[in-house]
Amino acid sequence: MYKYEIIIYWSEEDKKYIAEIPELPGCMADGDTYEEVIKNVQIIIFEWIETGKELGRAIPEPKGKLMYA
Fold this sequence. Notes:
- By secondary structure, the protein is of the alpha+beta class.
- It has a domain at 7-54.
- Helices cover 30% and strands 20% of the residues.
- It has a three-stranded antiparallel beta sheet with strand order 1-2-3, covered by helices on one side.
- A hairpin with a 7-residue loop joins strand 2 and strand 3.
- The longest helix is centred in the middle third of the chain and has 21 residues, at 34-54.
- It is globular.
């Protein structure tokens, strides 16, 4: 399990939960349920990191909580 901050919110427009990972630009997933979006975002984080490695890009280290509500 990755330790990146994940922001999850409901999109009324998409009628889905959306998960964004601020430390990994462009890395986001969706799901019909909260549980589904959590599963999907873990897959997408893995794929984002693997693709970055293949392309020789720097992979940010997780910093944990970045913002306060």
